[in-house]
Amino acid sequence: MWDHEIRAMASTHVIIAASVFMATILPAVFVSGFSVYGTHLLWLYSVSWTVTAVSVTVFWLLGITPPTKKHTLGYKLSKLFRSCLYFFLSCLFFHTVVVLYGAPLIESALETFSLSVLLTSLTTLRCLCVLGPNVQAWIRVFSRHGAMSVWDTCLQITVACTLVGAWVGAFPIPLDWDRPWQVWPVSCSLGATIGYLTGLVAAPVWIHYHRKQLTYKCK
Q: Is the separation of the CB atoms in 129 and 64 below 8 Å?
């Protein structure tokens, strides 16, 4: 029943996952000394903006983005503005949450905000692509039994994997191993990225094996 959507989802995830690897490999060709550890912020923003550009393009081409009820230029510009605003507010939200969980408030503020940009690119951006700038729809999807399509279920899985990955990535930071990946926020951003890639693989696989049990109701 959901085979077409699952195939489209798997293809989308392959493209997005490939963009993450390309954002890691290609800068090394053009930037001397580029590495995930040595130039971590550069890598972080490379991944963030590449995922953003590729996700927006792929979801738009596939028609996953919710259709606009109005076709006027003003409405489309308003939707674009709200999407950009939500993206920025999400960065501030993640920055606040990370600080409340123990990140330095003033020292390493740039690193903390950069991690927030990455988390927003991997989570909030996907909400914008699948649901649009509709906070009520976001709340509905992440509530119990709130999914109304396989894409909603996929959104739940990928966002959860990303956030869990970032959280798990924070565990090695206090340990006195003196490893380069323990520098803030390397392990968290790596954990978030690995969690995101895990979600890209796990979502279509989980949906495929549970497709007979999936029932969605219009709400």
A: yes
